[in-house]
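Here is one chain, start to finish.
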Amino acid sequence: MIKIALDAMGGDHAPAEIIKGALLALKEIPDINLVLVGDPAQINKFLQKGELCPRLSIKPATQAIGMDEPPVSAVREKKDASINVAMEELKGRSVDAVVTAGNTGAFMASALFKLGRIEGVERPAIATVFPAGNSRVLLLDMGANVDNKPQHLKQFGEMGSLYAQHVLHVANPRVGLLNIGEEKEKGNELTQAAWELLSQAHINFIGNVESKEVLTGGVDVVVCDGFVGNLVLKLAESIAARIMTMLKQEIAKSFLAKIGALFLLPALKNLKKQIDYDEYGGAQLLGVNGVCVKAHGRAKAKAIKNAIRVAYESVKEDIVECIKKEENQ
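Its structure:
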């Protein structure tokens, strides 16, 4: 059984949607145990009689970190915050992974303070899966580091390649460097120097890729610095949401459009599923000594369930040990 600590107090819809997501995950994944970390009084308000069982338990935490609190100071001052208690459980190996929808900065700070970096990893990276045609592409870093050095991008490529290979089950994943052009000479000093290092790494580096290639399926792992990566992530989320809003608005304009939508309903549902962030669950913090998954702050039950699935698959494939072996070679 794989045991996962779930920060029940983190996120815009905590603890109600966090608990709903936990219950969904228990139904879909038979070999997991979940630990709800947070205020027992608040958690119990959203649990029915009999839902607490050997596979679902509560670990008390008397404090919580808000979405708008300063991350580092909050982590240091609130020793009994739910995210800190969850990370302590992972540090002590009482659980195998941590999942939260809470404050991203606090999530990262707590992971670094409690777990530390894998030896040899200079900067952890947040890795996010994007839909790309009939496949998936992994982007990193999505915002863990605003400023990076070429060596960091090389390590992101190595960690991303390992994640794609072992967790996403992509044979010999193609790794590309996000840039403004495909030619080696394109980009700024960071990307030009990173190109040289990535080309020497023991990965299937295919060179520079432009942003238009991210969603076409021509690459499996896309490497960039955290500043650029976060912009890509936020823009992609907003475009996906806007597409669905525009479709609904156009369909509502006429009776014929509504009739046509009935025939297109299966295709529209499939489109929504492909671009729905909730389907992809959460982003993993690669490079720390433990499996740590961050769901969106607005995550509801389905997204929480899928974030738990991401954590489960990462533990099952022992991704932390894979990265340790790579970095210690």
